[in-house]
Amino acid sequence: MSAQAPVIILAEPQLGENIGSAARAMLNFGLTELRIAAPRDGWPNPAAEPLAAGAFDEGVEVTAFESVEAACADIGYLVAATARPRGMEKPVTNASGAVEWLQGQARKTAVMFGNEAQGLSNNHVALCDAIMTYPVNKDFASLNLAQAVIVFAHAWGEMQGQAGRFEGANAGVGEPASREDLIGMFEHFEYELDRAGYFYPPDKTPLMSRNLRNAFVRGQWTTQEVRTFRGAIKALALGRGKARITRED
Amino acid sequence: MSAQAPVIILAEPQLGENIGSAARAMLNFGLTELRIAAPRDGWPNPAAEPLAAGAFDEGVEVTAFESVEAACADIGYLVAATARPRGMEKPVTNASGAVEWLQGQARKTAVMFGNEAQGLSNNHVALCDAIMTYPVNKDFASLNLAQAVIVFAHAWGEMQGQAGRFEGANAGVGEPASREDLIGMFEHFEYELDRAGYFYPPDKTPLMSRNLRNAFVRGQWTTQEVRTFRGAIKALALGRGKARITRED
What we know:
2 copies of one chain form a homodimer. Chain A is of the alpha/beta class. The first copy, chain A, has 2 domains: 155 residues, SPOUT methyltransferase, trefoil knot domain (Alpha/beta knot, 3-Layer(aba) Sandwich); 68 residues. The first copy, chain A, has a 7-stranded parallel beta sheet. In chain A, strand 1, helix 1 and strand 2 form a beta-alpha-beta unit. In chain A, helix 8 runs parallel beside helix 10. The interface between A and B is large, with 82 and 80 residues.
């Protein structure tokens, strides 16, 4: 997906610190357009700088507006972030659902967050096309403003990443050992254990050996790890203090 | 969903404010067990209170530990939150993938976050079963600590809303080893390897040790497997032909 990234609108935010934190959260996931509508303490606000951790210099552009209406005037598709569905006749979704709906738009889009004290007013929600709500703990439902922003920003980043940028499990960290490598390692280990008298009583040998093999197979080792472990077996088997010499050969 | 909620571990956190914010973020999505390992400014820390917004009184229980190792001693399945996959041999996933993996465990689980300055050290990541990483902006990758926590907490809350009960991965293979068992096994193994002159040159010791630990952690061993392997180490270390005698003791 290469949908245009949504604007983040903070409606009547109170604390500069939260504006700074929200900007940092946005840039963490590649969102760069921040609008602040009727900020209580004006704009610019020096309290925002430390919490932004450089976000204003490194990509987030902030524009202040006199009102929420002005801040969303040119927005084609607008999502309201609220703690509860509100019982309004609007489609309601979660964070990843909102990202899907936003990505489906050819128009300019935005997500609007309410202020620290009251969240979005019903009048502001009424301006929006859809409601995004998070599955919060009903008994402790109030998120910090910047926390609410990063949950959405992460969902946005997550969806962008699925185009193939994300690497799979164990990605790029080494060539997996072949079954042959593993068997060679087991035989080496068991040979030395046998010489050390480990397999006792003898009739338990097959079971003990199988248990060890099972444990090792489960780790899905790489060829390098097999080599490392064989080096360790060799060192132990040669006895204390002797390994350094023989590592030369 | 009725999987046991994961513990959140903060490894060597610096600012009380972030501990408070993290607690609020946790409780927003129903997570209640917070552990802080070796907090720089001690614990309790009055700076945490205002940012917690009541979370400590309304459900989040905090326990402080002297070290990261102690904080994760009883954890069966441990996920490291890091900004990058690290090139270690561990499964890597995103937030929702981590939630799935955590829900699949019958054991006690945790997600560990590093501190504000450096994130998790490689040594701490080596103790973990898996890595969780977010699709961050490569040019602005550093999340605030509590922001990192809420992204995971939200993913957890999101998944609780969905139906279906996971059966535990590795179900029925025996009691999983605790982190304490594993650490004890590593220390035993490394002690004997060191006596055998395996760690050479000496400045490579931390790396060699970490590579071995990573390989073993990946197997998610049981307590029985840990005991078996410790028996094997002991046998090899005692030298050829001597193990049978000392197994009597």
